[in-house]
Design goal:
The complex is a heterodimer of chains A (443) and B (460). The radius of gyration of chain A is 22 Å and the shape is globular. In chain A, helix 3 runs antiparallel to helix 10, helix 5 packs parallel to helix 6 and helix 11 runs parallel beside helix 13. In chain A, 36% of the residues lie in helices and 13% in strands. Chain A has 13 helices and 15 strands. Chain B is an alpha/beta fold. Chain B is 40% helix and 12% strand. The N terminus of chain B is likely disordered. The chains are: A alpha/beta (443), B alpha/beta (460). Chains A and B meet through helix 1, helix 3, helix 5, helix 6 and helix 7 of A and helix 1, helix 5, helix 7, helix 9 and helix 10 of B.
């Protein structure tokens, strides 16, 4: 039996509505018929700037429509990067034990430090930043990178300028819009007027041409990259750090997929000399430990990182963390600590290898069909090009004809047009079946 | 402000301004001493280095600069730590931060154990959950707390706690709204407003931020604001039962509040985190008041009901009928924020939450609440017997004791110095908190009894 359905519950991130029968209207025809009361609180203008046709609700809608149209189709979800493999026992036992301890007098704990359990902070420093000079107190444990991105945006405020890779993980742009940094959306270009988009494509081997990139205060950079799968080289990251230094910018480096790197590419921005004065690094246990539902991540804010007036960024971030957050779940943190034990880490490497194996199969599948394939080697995403085609067209065709859900590249920015992102999370059986169907379609 | 000055204002695990929801745990062995952790020595040893250190050219967020450096909890922690240094053998009792102390009932923890173990099985593994929360939990919250009030499963957004939800709500509202808060109040309302850019500068003379409407709540007005003298604001933060005063608004008062909001086209953000501590004859939800669904959002938490202060679980109810001035549903924007800036509460915590709302779980939660309520009675009785004017303590786990004419920080220090008991100075919650001390009722019974013994000794 192929466990191709991830769960009976369809996850609809960026969703317009959760319940199919709650219809949201974007116009004021939803004013209360009964009493006619609208408050006189103006809607946040920044929220209005968000695009209504978001990536994932749109995909979920297509998915729903498709399953309604073809109810007997065995859907294979290689769209959203949702982990599928069970978490190793050693980790879940630690969480179960912690939960149990909370029912005892000696084991009960109330509020934890908002910055995270010190043992976990140190373990993160030891595991991921050994010899890189990152200390436990520079690490802020969180409930995940997506949440941290927004906390960082609240920290930075509306008056900073931002650059993102194009294509990129949509949360950088969306959070920027929400906080008021992005300006208006321009239909012609598909870009927000105040955001600098650093194109990453075949022409530049998926690393931006920094010589033509305007200065911004903040540079979001994800490596290994979601969605392209590209891992920047040491040389390239050196360039990036130098660029940031020359411009007085701050890099927000997203290293959520670093454990998928299979070559010598740097796993942390802090491997680059000087990075501690220009960079913040965010990361997550989601794709490394299958913690997508458990919720655990971290952000490194070096002591040496300062604003133009010399004020340490870390101090303000700490303030945000203490004011707008109350720490990651103690149960999740207990799990995190077990993840970083020798045995736990070993067990997780096996799971990561499993997904890497999936990625290899997907890469081989598309390559064998003569398509241009990127990614898949240092990240759990495969980035496939269909020159001359709209990515939504390809997405629909694949869904229609093979019942496989992918993600149209355009959803990650204008630079994603012509590409499809195929995620490598899934049971091996589903991946193999997907491979068969795709070969059949495009032979 | 020089770099050295910045460095000397410590970052610590208790640098939260925020009274109840702080990390401070009297039983934590590793209370951090901020001064040590932040490189003061580095500066002294190499002042030249500090001056020529590289700076980015990114401007500091001016809103962050408006926040006051002397926060409530770092200051309390500093004093506690200094006190411990002075009296290393003192048995310090913490009735400051509202941190729960009693174990979580087994019916709840075993559900979390079960869910944890299930994650290591093929059938039981789940990845991303719905950002709004697991369906069963949303349904259970709706039926437990909002039965017959017209708040449904899909109006409920499960979160990692009220503190986090408050900031998410502020992100929804944005910088261009005006806010009103009770005075005194839970500091997160004010601080999140400052961070969002809703306020002007802090005025030292009246201890208020320009642009915030402070609604005074004192013994004179029965701890309910005189709405006839309150200016209109877009948003009204209202907490009942109240932190720190313990006052619980009556149905009549909440009706006034709802009507006030309706007349002014305002939105009430109603914090009901302590509702289960209120007596049965008092409203437990703003939605018990007719018309509230068109003017209010309600936020709540499992923290003080289930001892989930570290587990992290709460929820916010946003009615479908709540609309911005252009008719756009507030819930739609909140949903967008929840999907973009958040990724759901931990699935294990949610499993615990579901068990909390089972008949057995509810019974167990009520027992723990009753335990803390009994602590509260003991504290109230103690201060009453000493002749103080005591407020709160009946419908909330906080006792609000009046020390007329005295600075609350002075009283805080006096109590700490002479009885080794940590409390919270009322001025930390706003200017109208001056002259009051908040004593929280979370603690082991023996600690509470011992603390009261010491109070009696000091103030006999």
């Amino acid at each position: 039996m192929l466990y191709c359905q991830l769960s009976s519950r369809i996850r609809i991130p960026y969703a317009v509505s959760l319940q199919p029968n709650t219809t949201w209207s974007t116009s004021s025809n939803l004013s209360n018929e009964k009493s006619g009361h609208c408050t006189s609180v103006p809607r946040n203008a920044n929220m209005e700037k968000l695009r209504s046709g978001y990536l994932f609700p749109e995909i979920s809608r297509h998915e729903l429509e498709h399953t309604q149209k073809s109810p007997h189709a065995r859907l294979i979800r290689l769209g959203i990067g949702d982990t599928t493999q069970p978490i190793p026992d050693i980790i879940t036992s630690a969480m179960a034990e912690h939960a149990h301890a909370l029912s005892t007098v000696q084991g009960y704990r109330g509020y934890g430090a908002e910055q995270g359990n010190m043992a976990l902070r140190r373990a993160i420093a030891e595991t991921f930043y050994r010899d890189l000079g990152v200390k436990g107190n520079e690490i802020f444990v969180s409930d995940g990178a997506q949440c941290d991105i927004s906390r960082l945006q609240m920290l930075l405020g509306s008056n900073v300028s931002v650059a993102v890779q194009d294509p990129s993980f949509p949360a950088y742009i969306d959070s920027s819009v929400i906080v008021g940094q992005a300006g208006k959306f321009q239909e012609e270009t598909g870009k927000y007027e105040n955001i600098v988009y650093m194109k990453c494509g075949h022409d530049n081997n998926f690393f931006p041409d920094l010589s033509t990139t305007s200065r911004t205060d903040i540079i979001f950079f994800c490596s290994p990259n979601n969605p392209t799968g590209y891992a920047a080289s040491r040389q390239q990251l050196k360039q990036l750090v130098e660029f940031a230094k020359a411009n007085g910018s701050i890099i927000i480096f997203d290293s959520a997929y670093s454990t998928y790197i299979s070559d010598e590419s740097p796993r942390s921005i802090f491997e680059i000399p000087g990075a501690k004065e220009v960079a913040i690094e965010i990361s997550s246990f989601s794709k490394f430990a299958g913690f997508t539902g458990v919720r655990l991540g971290w952000t490194v804010v070096p002591e040496d990182l300062t604003y133009s007036n010399g004020f340490p960024v870390m101090k303000d971030y700490d303030r945000i963390v203490c004011t707008c957050f109350n720490g990651a779940s103690s149960v999740a943190q207990a799990g995190g600590l077990a993840c970083l034990s020798k045995e736990g880490y070993r067990a997780l490497t096996r799971v990561v290898d499993y997904y890497r194996g999936n990625a290899e199969i997907i890469v081989d599948t598309f390559a064998s069909l003569g398509l241009k394939v990127d990614g898949g080697r240092n990240a759990p995403y495969v980035w496939v090009r269909f020159p001359g085609y709209s990515s939504w067209e390809i997405f629909s065709e694949i869904l229609e004809k093979t019942h496989i859900v992918t993600v149209p590249g355009r959803g990650f920015g204008p630079g994603g047009e012509e590409y499809i992102r195929v995620s490598a999370f899934g049971h091996r059986g589903c991946i193999l079946e997907a491979s068969r169907r795709l070969k059949n379609l495009y032979k | 402000m020089s770099l050295t000055q910045h460095l000397s204002t410590p970052i610590s695990s208790s640098s939260s301004a925020f009274v109840a929801h702080s990390n401070f745990n009297s039983r934590t062995k590793n209370v951090s001493l901020p001064a040590k952790r932040f490189s003061i020595c580095k500066c002294i040893a190499a002042p030249q280095e500090a001056q020529t250190a590289y700076k980015t050219t990114v401007s500091r967020n001016a809103n962050m600069a408006k926040l006051q450096a002397g926060y409530l909890f770092p200051e309390i922690s500093r004093r506690r730590a200094a006190h411990l240094l002075k009296y290393p053998d003192a048995q310090v009792i913490s009735l400051g931060i509202g941190d729960t102390t009693e174990p979580i009932p087994e019916v709840i923890t075993s559900a979390m154990e079960k869910r944890s173990r299930a994650l290591s099985t093929l059938e039981g593994y789940s990845g991303y959950g719905a950002e709004q929360g697991e369906k069963a939990l949303r349904a259970a919250i709706a039926s437990t707390f909002y039965r017959n009030l017209g708040i449904e499963e899909d109006d409920i957004f499960v979160s990692d706690g009220a503190k986090c939800d408050l900031s998410r709500l502020q992100v929804v509202f944005g910088a261009d709204v005006t806010i009103a808060v009770q005075d005194p109040s839970y500091p997160v309302y004010v601080d999140s407003g400052v961070i969002m850019g809703q306020t002007g500068q802090f005025q030292k003379d009246d201890q208020k931020f320009v642009g915030i409407e402070y609604m005074k709540c004192t013994p004179e007005n029965g701890f309910f604001p005189d709405l006839s003298s309150v200016s209109r604001t877009d948003i009204i933060f209202f907490c009942s039962p109240n932190n720190p005063t313990g006052a619980a608004a009556t149905r009549e008062q909440l009706t006034q509040l709802v009507n006030f909001a309706k007349d002014n086209g305002s939105i009430i953000v109603y914090d009901s985190a302590y509702a289960m501590y209120a007596s049965k004859d008092l409203p437990h939800s703003i939605f018990e008041i007719p018309g509230a669904k068109e003017v209010a959002i309600e936020t709540s938490s499992f923290s003080k009901y289930a001892g989930f202060t570290g587990v992290r679980l709460g929820w916010t109810a946003v009615p479908k009928q709540l609309l911005f001035s252009d008719g756009f549903p507030v819930a739609k924007d909140f949903n967008r924020i929840v999907c973009t800036c958040f990724n759901g509460a931990s699935n294990i915590a949610q499993a615990g939450g579901l068990a909390c709302l089972s008949p057995e779980g509810l019974k167990a939660m009520h027992e723990v609440i009753d335990f803390y309520k009994e602590n509260t009675n003991i504290i109230v009785e103690t201060f009453n017997s000493l002749g103080f004017n005591v407020y709160g303590g009946k419908n909330a786990p906080y006792v609000w004791v009046h020390f007329p004419g005295r600075s609350s920080w002075d009283v805080f220090s006096e109590i700490l110095e002479k009885t080794h008991v940590v409390t919270t100075p009322g001025s930390g919650f706003g200017p109208a908190g001056e002259g009051f001390i908040r004593v929280s009722a979370f603690g082991h019974r023996s600690n509470v009894l011992e603390a009261c013994k010491r109070f009696k000794q000091l103030y006999k």
